Amino acid sequence: MHFETRLWQFSKGVRLRISYAVLIGLTATALGIARLALMGWLIGRIFAGDSFQQLSVLLLVVAGVIGLRSIFEHWRVMVAHETAAKVQLKLRQFLFDKVAELGPGYVARERSGDITLSLVDGVEQLEVYFGQYMPQLL
Q1: How confident is the model at residue 5 (pLDDT cuts 50, 70, 90)?
Q2: Cβ-based neighbours of 83, under 8 Å, separated by 6 or more
Q3: Over 80: is that where the pLDDT of 123 sits?
Q4: Is 105 exposed, middle or buried (0-12, 13-18, 19+ CB in 10 A)?
Q5: In terms of DSSP H, where are the helices of the chain?
Q6: What is the pLDDT of residue 107?
Q7: Average pLDDT value for residue range 122-134
Q8: In whole angstroms, what is the distance from residue 73 CA to residue 67 CA?
Q9: How far apart are CA 8 and CA 48, in angstroms?
Q10: For a tag on the chain, would you pick the N or C end, based on fewer CB atoms within 10 A?
């Protein structure tokens, strides 16, 4: 696992949101484990010969846990996406300021495609880094 300290400096101001995404992800994981345990118990009760009436409450609990897990997972993805967007905006502003500071003489010596690729596609790729990788790493 790789932790890039140069990119971490751009997360200042959103680190609490990253922690928030981690907590939501841990809750979703706990709900996923609970779902698997309840499904195992349900299958065991089915093989034990319980009637549908006896299983109906357990079925509703399993459905509720599945629904809760999906809500928490969606919530985690949305928080992570918004956090990554905030970091990308900060990074784009930094890169734009740096290019403006270097001036047109520097930009004229470099290949414009490389600069454009770094400013657009390179920053877009960081959504996965800040939105998914960082919360999972933490």
Answers
A1: confident
A2: 14, 17, 18, 21, 130, 131
A3: no
A4: exposed
A5: 5-8, 15-47, 52-109, 112-117, 123-124, 126-128, 134-137
A6: 66
A7: 76
A8: 10
A9: 54
A10: N
